[in-house]
Amino acid sequence: MDETPLIRYKGVEIDQQALCVLHDVDFELHKGEFVYIIGKVGSGKSTLLKTIYGELDIAKGEATVLGYDMKKLKQKNISELRRKLGIVFQDFQLLIDRTVHDNLEFVLRATGWRQRQAIENRIAEVLERVGMENKGYKMPNELSGGEQQRIVIARAILNSPDIILADEPTGNLDVETGRNIVELLKEICNQGSAIIMTTHNLHLLSEYPGIVYRCEQHHLQRIGES
Ligand SMILES: Nc1ncnc2c1ncn2[C@@H]1O[C@H](COP(=O)(O)OP(=O)(O)OP(=O)(O)O)[C@@H](O)[C@H]1O
């Protein structure tokens, strides 16, 4: 592929508390790709994602995410970068004191949306995209785990991100609900956002093919396409 990658890591080392978690990481993500990161508990999957959204510094090497040099990031750049990323975790992280609609409105307003009609239209669009068009009035605790995860995905796509980072998005869900969530992420990928998803569920790899990397013994190894 000749276009500039969305993410390019070359010879990267990532440390946690001065201890090396991953070294010599070479990784590229291109538009439209669906990438799985697999590996044992504690092998560095979440740590890798944290560097992509600027939560953790790069210790060595070259790293670019959406044009940002990750070794020279300032606080202002981190906020800008995060607006271009959609982030989905396994433990949902919806604001529990407000409705689904208000969770989504909160993010839109925090990212600069001002016009009431545009806000309402966008909320309706993303809820429809994730199959939750009638659930805007619900409080998060009135939804099932799978429904909450759909709302988190709706929240992640509000600003049409170039990249979605999904850290164990099916981790708290039953098998069937987990499959539905990956299907949804696949659809979103087909519509233009590249996706990086960590998972322990290796069945998903054959059901929903993607590019697979494994974290193992402090390395990130590209295994191929599943
Ligand atoms: N905040 C932290 N401070 C110090 N060490 C950390 C911190 N977070 C993670 N680590 C260490 O970094 C290593 C990688 O952890 P990480 O959470 O990235 O693993 P993981 O592959 O995502 O695991 P899991 O499958 O359990 O989510 C582990 O040895 C862990 O103990």
From TrEMBL:
An example Gene Ontology molecular-function term: ATP binding
ABC transporter domain sequence ranges: 7-226
Keywords: ATP-binding, Nucleotide-binding
Domain of life of the native organism: Bacteria
SMART domains: AAA (SM00382)
SUPFAM superfamilies: P-loop containing nucleoside triphosphate hydrolases
Pfam families for the chain: ABC_tran
PANTHER family per UniProt: CELL DIVISION ATP-BINDING PROTEIN FTSE, IMPORT ATP-BINDING PROTEIN
Protein name: ATP-binding cassette domain-containing protein
Species assigned in the record: Phocaeicola intestinalis
